[in-house]
Design a protein that fits this description.
This protein has 118 residues and is mainly beta. Helices cover 0% and strands 47% of the residues. Strands 2-10-9-4-5-6 form a 6-stranded mixed sheet, with no helix packed on it. It has a 4-stranded antiparallel sheet with strand order 1-3-8-7, with no helix packed on it. Strand 7 and strand 8 form a beta hairpin.
Length: 118
């Protein structure tokens, strides 16, 4: 059974930083690209960042490029999202999934809430 467990969200002031983690299980982590998405109420889920299977190739949404960094740990089957210089418009629930340009699996974790506010 595919599972994603996201953590690390919280309330942070504009300009602050957070590091999100996503522990994956139920599939061969090392054979899959991984990605982070975010969603705000009333809008579609948005692809934020992706990292290839090997880890040297990454891709970012234009709105987060230069501020967010995606990374992965194969031994821990975990993908991370380092978020710096956070803005109020980054406020959303953040999810992870396998895949590079689109989510591989239809099941999603509970997500982790990120709120950027003063």
């Amino acid at each position: 059974q595919v599972q994603f467990v996201e953590s690390g969200g919280g309330l942070v002031q504009p300009g602050g930083s957070l590091r999100l983690s996503c522990a994956a299980s139920g599939f061969t982590f090392s054979n899959n690209a991984m990605s982070w998405y975010r969603q705000v109420p009333g809008k579609e889920r948005e692809l934020v960042a992706a990292i290839a299977r090997v880890g040297s190739i990454t891709n970012y949404a234009g709105s987060v490029k230069g501020r967010f960094t995606i990374s992965r740990d194969h031994a821990k089957k975990t993908v991370y999202l380092q978020m710096n210089s956070l803005k109020p418009e980054d406020t959303a629930v953040y999810y992870c999934n396998a895949g590079f340009n689109a989510a591989t699996f239809g099941s999603w974790g509970q997500g982790t809430q990120v709120t950027v506010s003063s």
